[in-house]
Amino acid sequence: MFFRNPESSHEHSLETLNWLYEHDDFMSSIDTLIDLGCGQGLDLEWWATRTTRDDNPEPLNIKCTGVDLFENLPVAHEHQNITYQRNNFEGQIHSPKEGFDVLWCHDAFQYALNPIDTLSRWREISVDGAMLVLIVPETQRIHHKKLFYYQPNGCFYHYSVVNLIHMLAVTGWDCRAGFFKKDP
Fold it and tell me: Are 99 and 130 in contact (CB under 8 A)?
């Protein structure tokens, strides 16, 4: 599925975000997160405003970084724990000394000109055991025994689960404990 506006893209990512939020130990283990291709920052704001799910919720205070090409990211001015880097997510990204715990890329990776180099660079800015979340549009499907392709404007590659796993493995990501979801 390809999303044309930020709100529908964010609604789609909320399915994954809300599922992750149910895992208290995971959420409390996150110190740093980067949203690669953050757009208007709706997903970034979701991460920045998370609290514990206790009776008396406490802010998780995840240090969040957004990367995109917009001149300005207003959500970065609204939350102290959000920083913004105006940059192409394929380029050099400033990271904390120890790296990022979570690398989030929703509906943006399909625009990478060189996906192998991009995944390699992302691996360099991640901590050991970091979680990479890649959500890419479905660009091919079978309908009534016929194969159909959809090529979004500016999208250079069609990804399948198999070629994503291959690219992740050759760029140093450990896929043994990976979770891969494909909607029916």
Answer: yes
Least confident of 57-71, 109-123, 151-165: 151-165
pLDDT in tens, 13-33: 999 999 999 999 999 999 999
CA dihedral 72, 77, 79, 81 (to 10 degrees): 70
Give percent of the chain with pLDDT exceeding 90: 72
Question: What whole-number distance in Å separates Cα of residue 1 and Cα of residue 86?
Answer: 27
**Residue in 66, 105, 107, 104 with CA at minimum distance from that of residue 87:** 66
Residue 138: its H or E element: none
Q: Using an 8 Å Cβ cutoff, are 52 and 29 in contact?
A: no
Query: 43 by DSSP, 3-state: which?
Result: helix
CB neighbours of residue 61 within 10 Å:
13
Contact assessment for residue 32 and residue 70, using Cβ atoms and an 8 Å cutoff: no
